[in-house]
Amino acid sequence: MASTRQPQALENTALRPVSRSATSNSGIRHLLLRMRRRWQLYALLILPLAYIIVFSYVPMLGAQIAFRDYRVADGIWNSQWVGLENFERFFNSFQFERLIVNTITLGLYLLVVGFPIPIILALSLNQVRVLWFKKTVQLATYAPHFISVVVMVGLILQLLNPRFGILAQLTTALGLPQVNAMSRPELYQSIFVWTDIWQHMGFAAIIYLAALTTIDPSLHEAAVVDGASKLQRIWHIDIPGIMPIATMLLILNFGNFINIGFEKVLLLQNPVNTSVSEILDTYVYKVGLASPTLDFSYATAIGLFKGVIALLMVVFANYSVKKLGQESLW
Amino acid sequence: MTAIRRPFRRTDGAIKDSRGDRIFSTLNYVFLSIILIIILYPLIYTVSASFSAPSAVITGRVTLFPVDFSLVGYQKIFEHPTLVKGMLNSIFYTVVGSAVSVVLTMLAAYPLTRKDLPGRRFLTVLFFFPMLFSGGLIPFYLVVRDLGLVNTRWAVIIPTALSVWNLIITISFLRASIPEELYEAAQIDGCSDIGFLLKVVLPLAKALLAVLFLVYAVAQWNQYFISLIFQTNPDLAPLQLVLRNILVLNKVDLGMMADVKRMADQQALQEQLKFSSIVVASVPVLLLYPFVQRYFVQGLTIGAIKG
Questions:
Q1: Using the beta-carbon criterion (under 8 Å), do A61 and B135 form an inter-chain contact?
Q2: How far is A93 from A96, CA to CA, in rounded Å?
């Protein structure tokens, strides 16, 4: 590791005071000097920066076509500016209400039901003393998370098949009438949410389990000495222990709740259930990429509308969590 | 003796839970056993159906174990060029894509862990902000299209190369496991930034690299939507896209059905095939994930708690 270059440590430690000038000129020069010294780090960052700019920030810039009447021939910058026309068209369209309702109900359903269950699973697993059982349950519940969305939907369709699926066998055995679950729009959201929970609860529980292991065991020992039951210990020690991480995840999930996994929604859609299954994202996909009459501007406007709402929601969620005294994202 | 609530030490020295606690424990085990069954049953059923005769599957005779053991589903799959090609494509995308992603992630994460990087906070925000807001699907599509990536192999590798979530975990892991003192000592020895990365960080972060690779690999293996919008050429289709045709769109491949005469038999085979394809598509991932678990829990723990 020896090199003939001047050791950087001496110049970077706090031992040697760095002169700060009041004028911005020498401040910038100082900054540039510091940057030049660390040029290798910037060299490493070139590719990732290029990536994030091209694939995350340029599209943000491109989202302006929501305010234009985008024509392929004109390109982004030359297409005519139409202001809020696309948004007005969307708000006045008869799809608007249905899409918003579908998106919000599905998102909230998923959040309200899906958020507590991994926590309960983690709290429950944490109480297990028999190691092989604990590991087995963990390993098993963790597995479905890795199945692909396509396979998962395939699994759902097979299991709900009215002729031979598990549901059909069950209803036949119990003497109940046949249920063709996928052709009943009223069942769509429940199917979506509960299979989502089935698939991901084990994986989501991992974070909580990890948090539970960081709880000071002496707290539990003291509680045991004081005569606390297991339930009491869970309520007074475990739950407060995972509160920070739970609230952080809640913010992220809340702000994100309208970003439902639309790949799964798309796959589970069929002509019968679109009245409940069409959400903002699938509609954007259809209008923008999958219909015979593509309308990039209109689709972008809808997507932008959704993106802004999602951002506002995360900001709001973060703010309220701070107000409640818990740890927030920023 | 009146009911004792707290755990007490028996005369033989063992600690016994109170009655309330024992009831709770029992209920807990019952609860978890039910969960175990709920998770495992659909999976076992699927595997069993994949090894059963089509006639048994379609008449609902398969409940837990294979009925009329048969390998015809698997046979058809491996004779089926589209599916095999899909698998080969997926293998390519997974291996190359994950490698690219891991490299890109490390290139971004390492500098961001250096506390003395000028503009570090700005750069960190720059990388994390897209998690909160994006331009949307259509502008993203337009960018990829304008880069000429549509209907190329790179369409699934480059546009989704870096996951900000994985970046966060990587940064947390590096910060937690590479102590600052090590860096300072290396600096005094005259080690450069890149030198430190190559000689110290990478060797120490082998577990992290493995986890990163596996996480990206699973995501690549399982993706279908990027291919759906960017790769209309069927030669490029990954496994999941082919599966979508089989499992969701119910597209019948006449080539597979060539030697099956009756319509009813065709339908039976088609349904049974679905189970076999589910198994074939998921086996690689399900074989690997226990290995992920060991490292992943560690990485996720550090990332989530200290991040």
A1: yes
A2: 6
Choose among B7, B45, B190: nearest Cβ to A7: B190
* Chain A residues inside the 8 Å CB shell of B135: 56, 58-63, 303-304, 307
All residues at 6 or more sequence positions from A281 whose CB lies less than 8 Å from its CB, including other chains = A103, A259, A260, A262, A265, A303, A306, B137
Does residue A73 sit in the same domain as residue A130? no
Structural domain count, chain A: 2
- Which of A45, A129, A139, A148 best probes binding to B when mutated, by most B CB atoms within 10 angstroms? A148
> Which residues of chain B are within 8 Å of residue A3 when distances are taken between CB atoms?
190-192
Q: What ipTM was estimated for this complex?
A: 0.85
CA angle centred on B139, ends B138 and B143, rounded to 5°: 115
Q: B154 CB near a chain A CB, below 8 Å? A: no
CA distance B156 to chain A (A): 13
Same domain, A32 and A137: no
* CA–CA separation, A3 and A50 (whole Å): 31
- Do residues A76 and A112 both lie within one domain? no
Which chain B residue shows the shortest CA-CA distance from A12? Answer: B116
CATH classification of the domain holding A203: 1.10.3720.10
- Which of A81, A98, A114 finishes a domain? A81
Cβ proximity of B192 and A40 under 8 Å: yes
Question: Which residue type does B244 have?
Answer: R
Counted residue by residue, chain B has a size of: 307
Using the 8-state DSSP alphabet, how is residue B154 labeled?
G
In a domain, A107, yes or no: yes
* B8-61 residue pLDDT tens: 655 554 566 778 888 999 999 999 999 999 999 999 999 999 999 998 888 888
Residue range A183-218, pLDDT digits in tens: 899 999 999 999 999 999 998 898 898 888 888 889
Listed residue (A225, A237, A219) closest to B6, CA to CA: A225
Residues A145 and A203 in one domain: yes
Looking at CA atoms only, how far is residue A243 from chain B in angstroms?
12
How distant is the Cα of B89 from the closest Cα of chain A, in angstroms? 16
Interface touch B274/A168, C-beta < 8 Å: no
Q: Let me know whether A230 and A113 are in one domain.
A: yes
Of residues A151, A159, A303, nearest to B137 (C-beta)? A303
**CB B300, CB B212: distance < 8 Å:** no
Which residue, B40, B154, B14, is CA-closest to A137? B40
Q: Are residues A60 and A204 in the same domain?
A: no
Number of A:B CB contacts under 8 A? 307
Q: Touching check for A166 and chain B: CB below 8 Å?
A: yes
Q: Does some domain include residue A329?
A: no
pLDDT digits (tens, 9 = 90+) for B127-157: 999 988 888 899 999 999 999 999 999 999 9
Query: What pLDDT score does B125 carry?
Result: 94
pTM: 0.84
What domain range includes position A265? 87-323
Whole-angstrom distance, CA of residue A10 vs CA of residue A4: 15
Instruction: In whole angstroms, give the CA distance from residue B208 to residue B169.
Output: 9
Among A residues 41-60, those touching chain B with beta carbons less than 8 Å apart: 41-45, 47-49, 51-52, 54-60
Is there a single domain that holds both residue A236 and residue A315? yes
A97 and A71 both lie in a single domain = no
**Residues in A touching B136 (Cβ below 8 Å):** 59, 63, 284, 299-300, 303-304, 306-307
Residues with Cβ within 8 Å of residue B294, at least 6 apart in sequence = none
Q: What domains are there in chain B, each with its CATH number?
A: 81-252 (1.10.3720.10)
